């Protein structure tokens, strides 16, 4: 049913117009097949490539949160700009009490000591980030756990001389399980502190840069090495519900308002990831419009050719009493059927493609170095959002009918006498 500034089309005429529209699209099957192919490919690319973009963004967020960021962190106000040992949380018990008061019951948190350090052995040396962790609570918050260890074992609470390193760092330093590694950093007195650790485990992650960067020891061992007592560098929190981050951050800021600490969400801690996510919505919209423009020209051309081939037919319909608005409605019905069939088929193919790749993902290891620069993993798994499917379908159907108005109005303007005289 179409309303174009004229009285509503009666139910009987509506049925006739729908029947005419359905039959007319199959009168030239080759032409119909061409435009359906264009619509199907367009919708499939919208759904599938949109899911790949969302999957890329989802992996970036997951990797960023799992790679020692969490959903939020509590730090000294100067720690982000200058992560020195003096910029630490000197009264962590106050923070712990605030977390017990404000966090949901299913939230997990851990306290860490994090400093820049130099790892060296008899032959090699390299810059790393030394993290003093509490092994049980850290495993519930970040990527580092028993499951990440591929050789040796995970850290145990209270171990003073054991360390956990990444496979890439082990290869770089040409060391292996059981060897000693000396860690050097600046302590609380501004002096160089060093301590020898024995490698008890080697871990693997999706990102090689993570393996090269982070070295783990127990929190007590690092605190003793740096002479900071029970002080910590940061407290990281992981929530079970992603959407509760802002509310929890506001609550903690209110509770800790009188304390010299800052509460930061993952969006503030991962500015590059946040910027990429903000761009993705625009990229997806631009992609949808690009696909539609390419498809829209084909649709207009197909409908217009169908109209020009049936000038005598439209003239006859006008002669027997079919009014111009009804002609417009009949042509739009044809366009709607083409768009609806193509959209439905494209959606099915797009969703099947997403399901097929959701198990194995797309391996982009060949581009790993460039991808890791922005926090992207080697494997991309598509993520299909309802809003993207809805936007793709709405773009095709609504704009498709809009561009079909031109050939529809042209068909309605044919005069019976001129149309009957047309060869």
Please explain how this structure is put together.
Strands 1, 2, 3, 4, 5, 6, 7, 8, 9 and 10 form a 10-stranded mixed beta sheet that branches. The chain is built from 16 helices and 12 strands. The model is unreliable at 1-8 (pLDDT under 50). Strand 2 and strand 3 form a beta hairpin. Helix 1 packs across helix 12 and helix 10 runs parallel beside helix 14. The protein is of the alpha+beta class and 423 residues long. The protein has helices at residues 11-25, 29-66, 92-102, 135-139, 167-173, 208-213, 219-226, 245-255, 266-269, 271-309, 311-319, 324-360, 368-372, 386-403, 405-412, 416-420; strands at 72-75, 108-120, 125-133, 149-152, 162-166, 180-186, 192-203, 214-218, 234-238, 262-265, 362-363, 379-380. Helices cover 53% and strands 17% of the residues. The protein starts with 10 loop residues before the first helix and ends with a helix.
Q: Topology, please?
A:
Elements lengths: L10 H15 L3 H38 L5 E4 L16 H11 L5 E13 L4 E9 L1 H5 L9 E4 L9 E5 H7 L6 E7 L5 E12 L4 H6 E5 H8 L7 E5 L6 H11 L6 E4 H4 L1 H39 L1 H9 L4 H37 L1 E2 L4 H5 L6 E2 L5 H18 L1 H8 L3 H5 L3
Parallel strand pairs: 3-8, 5-7
Antiparallel strand pairs: 1-9, 1-10, 2-3, 2-6, 2-9, 4-7, 6-7, 11-12
Helix pairs in contact: 1-12, 2-10, 2-12, 2-14, 10-14, 10-15, 12-14, 12-15
């Amino acid at each position: 049913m179409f309303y174009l500034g004229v009285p509503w089309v009666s139910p009987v005429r509506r049925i006739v117009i729908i029947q005419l529209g359905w039959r007319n699209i199959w009168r030239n099957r080759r032409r119909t097949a061409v435009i359906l192919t264009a619509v199907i490919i367009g919708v499939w690319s919208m759904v599938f490539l949109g899911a790949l973009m969302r999957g890329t963004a989802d992996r970036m967020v997951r990797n960023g949160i799992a790679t020692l960021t969490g959903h939020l962190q509590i730090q000294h106000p100067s720690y982000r700009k200058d992560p020195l040992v003096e910029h630490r949380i000197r009264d962590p018990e106050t923070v712990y009490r605030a977390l017990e008061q404000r966090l949901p019951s299913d939230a997990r948190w851990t306290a860490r000591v994090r400093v820049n350090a130099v790892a060296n052995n008899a032959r090699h040396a390299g810059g790393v980030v030394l993290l003093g962790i509490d092994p049980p609570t850290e495993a519930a918050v970040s990527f580092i756990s028993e499951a990440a260890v591929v050789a040796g074992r995970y850290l145990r609470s209270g171990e003073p001389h054991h360390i956990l390193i990444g496979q890439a760092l082990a290869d770089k330093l040409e060391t292996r399980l059981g060897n000693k590694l000396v860690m050097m950093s600046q302590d609380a007195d501004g002096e160089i502190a060093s301590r020898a650790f024995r490698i008890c485990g080697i871990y693997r992650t999706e990102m090689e840069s993570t393996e090269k960067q982070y070295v783990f020891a127990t929190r007590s061992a690092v605190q003793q090495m740096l002479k900071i007592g029970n002080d910590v560098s940061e407290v990281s929190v992981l929530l079970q519900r992603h959407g509760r981050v802002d509310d929890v951050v506001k609550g903690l800021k209110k509770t800790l308002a009188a304390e010299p600490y800052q509460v930061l969400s993952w969006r503030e801690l991962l500015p590059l990831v946040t910027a990429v996510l903000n761009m993705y919505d625009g990229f997806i919209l631009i992609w949808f419009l690009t696909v539609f423009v390419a498809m829209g020209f084909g649709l207009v051309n197909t409908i217009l050719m169908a109209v020009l081939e049936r000038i005598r037919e439209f003239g006859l319909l006008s002669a027997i009493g079919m009014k111009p608005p009804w002609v417009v409605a009949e042509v739009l019905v044809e366009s709607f059927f083409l768009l609806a069939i193509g959209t439905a088929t494209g959606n099915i193919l797009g969703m099947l493609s997403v399901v097929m790749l959701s198990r194995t993902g797309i391996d982009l290891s060949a581009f790993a170095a460039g991808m890791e620069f922005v926090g992207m993993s080697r494997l991309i798994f598509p993520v299909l959002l309802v809003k993207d499917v809805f936007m793709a379908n709405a773009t095709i159907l609504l704009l498709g009918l809009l561009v079909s108005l031109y050939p529809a109005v042209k068909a309605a303007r044919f005069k019976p006498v001129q149309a009957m005289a047309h060869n």
